[in-house]
């Protein structure tokens, strides 16, 4: 477990679960890590905390837990899920990194070569086009004011990063702003 976030009932923690060799017929050569989100509750007594599985997903890891749009999003390499109380909604978006911006929107960054970025807004999932394909594999994303910064490693094993102005897509002078004004 590599991510943790507080909830009203305790905590949600996420990361991955390593399946035993040949678990449910899996090949020993295939990935044995599966996305995992657990809830943790503890009554502050001498008893141990209670762990309950909230989500066990496909191969990969959950890399980001973030509160946004009335719930907590667990973003992973196979899927992302929105957890709101006892409800779990699959967002059907795989990503390598994710971040929540100053508008409370969550940005999902795919692998090297991606030509689009998915953004979860209060209206639902939107797809934004990149000016050129992503030239590196994202490792970390973070919001900094009106910017989202993405850091990663390129094919030459060198560090690269890009910064996205999250307000530019909502501006009147952007193509998106002009289209919104037209409608």
Model description:
The protein has one helix and 15 strands; from the N terminus they run βββββββββββββββα. A four-stranded antiparallel beta sheet has the order 1-2-3-4, with no helix packed on it. It has a four-stranded antiparallel beta sheet with strand order 5-6-7-8, with no helix packed on it. Strands 9-10-11-12 form a four-stranded antiparallel beta sheet, with no helix packed on it. It is mainly beta and 183 residues long.
Q: Roughly how many Å apart are the termini?
A: 45 Å
* Cα-atom radius of gyration: 18 Å
Summarize the main sheet.
Answer: 4 strands, antiparallel
- SSE ordering: EEEEEEEEEEEEEEEH
Helical region count? 1
Major beta sheet, strand line-up: 1-2-3-4
Uncertain segments of ≥5 residues (pLDDT<50)? 176-183
How many beta-strand runs? 15
**Helix/strand class:** mainly beta
What is the average per-residue confidence, as pLDDT, rounded to a whole number? Answer: 87
Strand content: over 45%
Helix coverage percent: under 10%
Gross morphology is: globular
Task: Give me the secondary-structure topology.
Elements: E1 3-6, E2 11-18, E3 33-41, E4 50-59, E5 62-68, E6 71-76, E7 80-84, E8 87-90, E9 97-100, E10 106-109, E11 116-121, E12 124-129, E13 137-144, E14 147-153, E15 159-165, H1 175-182
Antiparallel strand pairs: 1-2, 2-3, 3-4, 5-6, 6-7, 7-8, 9-10, 10-11, 11-12, 13-14, 14-15
